[in-house]
Amino acid sequence: YGIYSAVGSLSSSDYWMVAADVIKAHSEEVFSEIYREIERIKHEPIPTDELETLRNYMAGKLLSQFNSSFE
User: Fold this and answer.
1) Of 9, 28, 38, 71, which residue is most buried, by most CB within 10 angstroms?
2) What is the tens place of the pLDDT at every residue in 6-53?
């Protein structure tokens, strides 16, 4: 079992994708859990420390786009 999500961009829109590697017999349970988590994210405030971790990650990711192998 494995699950992850990613954010992507197209020329005129962005998207969020959730992907999972699960046994087919458990797919309905997985879908239910994914939708339950989406609802939780929509309605519960994100803790400040989690937002700070995300902010630091995204800042580092942005800066790494401007680095080259010579820096």
Assistant:
1) 38
2) 999 999 999 999 999 999 999 999 999 999 999 999 999 999 999 999
The sign one gets for the Cα dihedral 5, 9, 49, 67 is: positive
Whether 21 contacts 13, CB under 8 Å: no
SS3 67: coil
pLDDT, residue 66, reads 80
Pair of tokens at residue 64:
């790494």
Instruction: Give just the sign of the alpha carbon dihedral 52, 54, 58, 60.
Output: positive
Q: Burial, 51: exposed, middle or buried (Cβ in 10 Å; 0-12, 13-18, 19+)?
A: exposed
